[in-house]
Specification:
4-stranded antiparallel beta sheet; mainly beta; 7-stranded mixed beta sheet
Length: about 120
């Protein structure tokens, strides 16, 4: 349905920054929402941030003021700028896109990128 290519994960010390990118291509549906989720070991996957095509955003309370999501609609790419990282931000981060085709809601997940924050 869509190809998602993520990049930007890695190892960083607490207080540092990372920028994640997710480029969508070959989509068979109209992408409306782009976002990032994360899953830490032993925990459920949770929403980190989401942005819709009009520019509205949602953030998890735990990342407000530290993370910023943005989107380049022309490139179908979503970014997550992560500042003031904490060890509890350590997780696999997954890109997600959602949209519609013929009135049906569709979505897709990226393969995930590891973010590790050392104390």
């Amino acid at each position: 349905q869509v190809q998602l290519v993520e990049s930007g994960g890695g190892l960083v010390q607490a207080g540092g920054s990372l920028r994640l990118s997710c480029a969508a291509s070959r989509s068979s549906f109209n992408i409306n929402t782009m976002g990032w989720y994360r899953q830490a070991p032993g925990k459920q996957r949770e929403l980190v941030a989401r942005i819709i095509s009009g520019g509205s955003t949602n953030y998890a309370d735990s990342v407000k003021g530290r993370f910023t999501i943005s989107r380049d609609n022309a490139k179908n790419t979503v970014y997550l700028q992560m500042n003031s990282l904490k060890p509890e931000d350590t997780a696999v981060y997954y890109c997600h896109v959602g949209g519609t085709r013929g009135g049906t809601n569709l979505g897709a997940w990226g393969q995930g990128t590891q973010v590790t924050v050392s104390s």
